[in-house]
Amino acid sequence: MGFLFSKPSYDPRRDIPDLTGKVILVTGANAGIGLQTSEQLAIHGAKVYLACRTESKAKAAIAGIEDRTPSLKGQSRLMWLPLDLSSMRSSKKAAEEFLSKEKRLDILINNAGRLADDYLLSPEGVELSVAVNHLGHFVLTTALLPLLKETARRPDADVRIIVVSSSVYASPGRTTFGTLEDFNDPQSEPGKKNVFSSRFKRYGTTKFLNVLFTNELQRRLDEEGVPITAISLHPGGVATEGAVALDVPWYFVVFLKLFAKTALEGAYTSLFAATNAQVAAERDKYKGKYIVPVGKIAGPSTEAAKDAGSARTLWETSEKVVTDITGGSA
To answer: Record's superkingdom (predicted)?
Structure first.
């Protein structure tokens, strides 16, 4: 349990290299871990796209970053990309907009996530946490893969795809995903969809999906001989506004407020995975792995999360669901 709430020695001011010339996309970047991740990347020279739903929140986040670091003003290094991960169509549109603007993508950080919340279906008919935490990112990532692969072929490229998961991936409510019905399983007894235990099971399931997706993505990249590094991670216990505002037992909120990391500290493992030179130097060691604060390889550690057949099935089912619902390919 030490890695959940321990205070790290990692220091982004010292440990992030110069990122000048790199283009990075961060989902859920207007608040919490995503905001802190984006801010540090921009400070170190990258052009960062803050991919999120609301223009006003995105622009307020950008203004806040520029106020804290005035040298970023007028540099066009912080950009808003409209993205609603609850919609596969929106995710595809966001990727298309990005592709129309940029000729390279060095780092994709799939950070956004819906926490342990009530059971709802998205407008496209998918359980909302699965839609946001998995399928939206699946569509975005696969649509951006051609550009990521093209960037990876450039001299001295170091392309990475980072997926923010959670330690609860090890305790999913469901581990088989062959149909849309599996995605939409409330994982509860009748009338108890929205009790905390059911909400937490569904959340754990989506974090399990994050790890399986990363595994299969890395396998496919390796099979093609594409030098892109995919990493999933646990940021640690973080007292973000979203986590504190959840309808959870009171002791959970107290524990977060007393012992959890700040949002900046919560961003450290994402920043390590996305930028640390050690990852590039020891790529075979890190690719396809699950890491915990800060930069420690910790898995995947369960048999279910390591199962290659399940990872392939998840990918194939995701492709089918995307095609059936949107009428287009993933």
So the answer is: Eukaryota
- Tell me: pLDDT of 246 over 80: no
Quickly list H helices, 184-249: 196-224, 241-245
Provide Rg for the chain, Cα atoms. 18
- The CATH class for the domain spanning 2-326 reads alpha beta
| pLDDT of res. 237 | 79
Residue 7's pLDDT is 53
- What is the biggest distance separating any 2 CA atoms in the chain, rounded to whole angstroms? 57
Distance between CA 197 and CA 5 in Å, rounded?
A: 22
* pLDDT (tens digit per residue) in 32-64: 999 999 999 999 999 999 999 999 999 999 999
Q: Which two tokens stand for residue 294?
A: 């800060």
- Whole-angstrom distance, CA of residue 91 vs CA of residue 86: 8
DSSP single-letter state for residue 121: B
DSSP-based three-state secondary structure for 158: coil
Active site (annotated) includes residue 251: no
Q: Is 252 exposed, middle or buried (0-12, 13-18, 19+ CB in 10 A)?
A: middle
Residue 195 identity (one-letter amino acid): V
Q: Check 49, 119, 169, 203 and give the catalytic one.
A: 203
Residue partners of 14: CB distance under 8 A and separation at least 6: none
Summarize pLDDT for 126-135 with one digit per residue, the tens.
999 999 999 9
Beta bridge partners of 26: 50, 109
pLDDT for the residue 187: 95
Amino acid letter, 51: A
